[in-house]
Design brief:
By secondary structure, the protein is of the alpha+beta class. It has a four-stranded mixed beta sheet with strand order 1-2-4-3, with helices on one face. A two-stranded antiparallel ribbon has the order 5-6. The chain contains ten helices and six strands; from the N terminus they run βββαββααβααααααα. Among the domains are: about 45 residues, no CATH class; about 140 residues, Butyryl-CoA Dehydrogenase, subunit A, domain 3 (Up-down Bundle), CATH 1.20.140.
Length: about 300
């Protein structure tokens, strides 16, 4: 089943006097990039999250966050004086640089500063960490299942779009094959006329050599191989859509091959109708390649 790299899921939980919300979101990326926002005082939490995400995603830019608070409203956080001092000094430098450049910056409020990462840190007691950590980790399978289900739903929608585009490509390839067959007599007639003109206006020209050159031109305008390869690419693309693994990279490479054959077809066309079919083919391939960027 085709799976999308894009997805989101959220799970809420509670344990004793703690409440939390897990969230995971992902967008497309060339490789795999996992970013975590987790409390650093709960041992083993990061390792558990990395293992859980690795079980459902192999590509994409994935962000996992945990918002953890005391149920009674106490966040369990205290001000990190050193971090606050660093922030204030950096703000002073920025204000000075702006003033020197003739700019006036708005003043940050206390709430703005407290919202900066690292200014507030957890002050949770260590004896809460182990049982709380187990409760938090117990929520990960549900979070990953919801996340993976959304990506599969997106993948089904994506596969439907790609199959429609492949149907269109297949139809255009068939049309190009018919147009190429129809132009054979015209091309042959044109070559015979060219051969006659060359022989009439070239004293001492070797008729056999001229015929060889014109035959070579005929071969260079033949698009049989391009038609065959495009048909093979359509079959390969449908096989990738039916694959249960991560096929995004292979599919992206295949769209490049599609485009290469379509370019060659247009270059060899020598026919308005065939050129139009080739350009339509390139347009659909470009649309398909945009969709493929979202396939895991």
């Amino acid at each position: 089943m085709t799976k999308s790299m894009t997805g989101f899921a959220s799970v809420a939980g509670e344990f004793q006097d703690w409440i939390w919300v897990w969230d995971i979101r992902a967008v497309n990326a060339r490789g795999f990039d996992l970013r975590l926002r987790l409390p650093d005082w709960i041992a083993g939490l990061e390792q558990a999250v990395r293992g859980a995400v690795g079980g459902v995603a192999v590509r994409g830019s994935v962000n996992v966050g945990l918002r953890l608070n005391r149920a009674a409203g106490d966040t369990g956080e205290v001000l990190d004086e050193a971090a606050l001092d660093r922030v204030m000094r950096q703000m002073a430098k920025i204000d000075a640089a702006a003033a020197q450049a003739g700019h006036s910056l708005g003043r940050a409020t206390a709430a703005d500063i407290l919202a900066l990462r690292g200014v507030l840190v957890s002050a949770a007691p260590e004896d809460d960490a182990e049982p709380l950590g187990k409760a938090l980790v117990a929520d990960l399978p549900g979070l990953m299942a919801a996340f993976d289900a959304m990506r599969q739903d997106e993948g089904r929608n994506l596969a439907a779009v790609l199959n429609t585009q492949l149907d269109r490509i297949e139809a255009l390839v068939a049309e190009a094959a018919v147009l190429a067959e129809a132009r054979k007599d015209l091309v042959a007639e044109k070559l015979r006329g060219n051969l006659a003109r060359v022989l009439d206006n070239s004293e001492g020209a070797d008729p056999d050599r001229v015929a060889q050159e014109l035959a070579l031109i005929a071969v260079k305008t033949d698009i049989t191989e391009e038609i065959d390869r495009l048909g093979a690419h359509v079959s390969a693309a449908r096989a990738l859509l039916a694959d249960t693994g991560a096929v995004g990279r292979k599919f992206d490479f295949l769209t490049q091959e599609f485009n290469r054959e379509a370019n060659t077809l247009c270059a060899k066309a020598q026919s308005g109708d065939l050129t139009r079919a080739g350009l339509d083919l390139k347009a659909v391939i470009d649309q398909m390649r945009e969709q493929v960027q979202n396939v895991e």
